[in-house]
Specification:
Layout: E1 2-3, E2 16-29, E3 32-38, E4 43-49, H1 55-62, E5 69-78, E6 86-97, H2 114-119, H3 121-124, H4 128-150, E7 154-155, E8 161-162, E9 173-177, E10 181-185, H5 190-200, E11 202-210, E12 223-232, H6 236-257, H7 259-264, H8 269-273, E13 280-283, H9 284-293, H10 306-314, E14 320-326, E15 336-337, E16 340-351, E17 356-363, H11 368-377, H12 386-390, E18 399-405, H13 406-414
Parallel strand pairs: 1-2, 4-6, 7-11, 13-14
Antiparallel strand pairs: 2-3, 2-5, 3-4, 5-6, 8-10, 9-10, 11-12, 12-18, 14-16, 15-16, 16-17, 17-18
Helix pairs in contact: 4-6, 4-13
The structure holds 4-amino-1,4-dioxobutan-2-aminium adenosine-5'-monophosphate and magnesium ion.
């Protein structure tokens, strides 16, 4: 007898198969019971008829508790009304572990508070919505890799232990490192990408990054995943085009392959269908003007707050690209605009529907003298950046790249309020468990 997953049921109609899984829910109706079994690939309704089963098997199923593990045996039947399109007529079942009534599965179909659910995150990820979000996340990651791999980018992973700051010294997590003293958890792989781009042309890194930010917002994690492409011989305009193409591609792939999950999440997919080229492109100056018109107290020179990003995102029906920020609010490495040195060739992509900044990047300083000047202005020790400075001595070229935060991107695609639900085990200001 074949052992299959629920996702494969369609290829086994009329066959008797085994499905190993867990009891998601159970409905009883006298001499027939309907166990809902999940296996990670889907949920299937099983139909167990008393007269068709040994008494022991029927009773075992009838008294089964939520999340008990079992292998169901039965014949697959197509049923247009069934949630996944198929049902299983039960012919047998093997119990693996019965969850005892005395210590029942803590997450019941009733409403629980968020803190309770986060404390039980190791179990919560089995629930339908959480499961759907994490499947969308996987599709997003897969599509990003596919896009970059198919467009000439080489994956070069960058280190997590680093001696220097990339995004400012105030958000570094320190850790003791043998006799070297203190090292930091990486904020971004960018500086290393700049080195690998000079070796490989077009590169990307994709991994966890860390920010010791005391931000308790729905957009901030202390540990988040970022994909960072970087290109040699590339400008701000190249970065905008890549960000746009990548986002359109990834949204398209999710719409293609994760319809069912988006339906589970009750996502309004018409909003996602609109994510097509071209995205609106505005300057920081224009963004400030628009924000002030809409009542924001922002002044030229100030950074966007969360509410500002929300206003900007809601003003457009697809992501909007904002470029040329004041140099004073951006990291040390941004190339100034040659026509207006007080602004830099940086771009943020702001998602619609209030999801905030999903991409940040731009063109990097490639001239040695200017880099040295900026390091000094930002009080960054030259010795620590010696290797980074080398890149400006040995065949320096204009180069550009960006970082896209996976959790914010997934939150937007799924339409979930808070980034904490877009990663299996979120790390936040007040949460490092489970
Ligand atoms: O704008 P950021 O800080 O840019 C960089 O780190 C660049 N060095 C990237 C590069 O050019 N290679 O971060 C990039 C993105 C943001 O747009 C956001 O999506 C995400 O990373 N991000 C966060 N996501 C969750 N929690 C946080 N605390 C985040 N901080 C940034
Ligand atoms: Mg940013």
């Amino acid at each position: 007898m074949k052992r299959i997953t629920i996702a494969e049921a369609g290829r086994h109609v009329g066959e008797t198969v085994q499905i190993p899984g867990w009891l998601y829910n159970l409905r009883r109706s006298g001499k027939v019971i309907f166990p809902l079994v999940r296996d990670g690939t889907g949920i299937i309704q099983c139909v167990a008829v008393k007269s068709a089963l040994p008494e022991q098997t029927f009773e075992m199923l009838r008294d089964l508790t939520q999340e008990s593990s079992l292998i169901v045996i039965g014949k697959v039947r197509a049923d247009a009304r069934a949630p996944g399109g198929y049902e299983l007529d039960v012919e047998g079942a093997e119990l693996i572990q019965r969850v005892p009534e005395s210590d029942p599965y803590p997450i019941t179909p009733k409403e629980h508070g968020v803190e309770f659910l986060m404390d039980h995150r190791h179990l919560w990820i089995r629930s339908r919505r959480q499961h759907a979000i994490l499947r969308v996340r996987h599709e997003v990651v897969r599509a990003i890799r596919e896009y970059l791999d198919n467009h000439g980018f080489t994956l070069v992973d960058t280190p997590i232990f680093t001696p220097a700051a990339c995004e400012g010294t105030t958000t570094l997590f320190e850790t003791r490192y043998f006799d070297e003293g203190v090292v930091y958890l990486t904020q971004s792989g960018q500086l290393y990408n700049e080195a690998t781009a000079m070796a490989f042309g077009k590169v990307y890194c994709f991994g966890p990054t860390f920010r010791a930010e005391r931000s308790k917002t729905r957009r901030h994690l202390t540990e988040f995943w970022m994909v960072e492409p970087e290109m040699a011989y590339a400008t701000l305009e190249d970065v905008k085009e890549l960000a746009e193409d990548l986002i359109v591609y990834v949204v398209g792939r999710v719409l293609e392959n994760r319809r069912q999950e988006l339906a589970t999440l009750e996502r309004d997919t018409s909003r996602l269908e609109r994510v097509q080229k071209p995205f609106a492109r505005i300057s920081y100056d224009e963004a400030v003007k628009l924000l002030r018109e809409k009542g924001s107290p922002i002044e030229w020179g100030g950074d966007f707050g969360g509410p500002d990003e929300t206003i900007l995102g809601e003003a457009f029906d697809r992501p909007v690209m904002v470029d040329r920020f004041p140099a004073s609010i951006k990291a040390f490495y941004f190339e100034p605009d040659p026509e207006r040195p007080e602004v830099v060739l940086g771009v943020d992509v702001i998602a619609p529907e209030g999801y905030g900044e999903i991409v940040g990047g731009g063109q990097r300083i490639h001239r040695l003298e200017l880099l040295l000047e900026r390091l000094e202005q930002h009080r960054l020790a030259r010795e620590i950046f010696d290797w980074y400075i080398d890149l400006r001595k040995y065949g320096t070229v204009p180069h550009s790249g960006f970082g896209m935060g996976i959790e914010r991107f997934v939150a937007w695609i799924c339409g979930v309020e808070h980034v904490r639900e877009t990663i299996a085990f979120p790390r936040m200001l007040y949460r490092t468990r489970p």
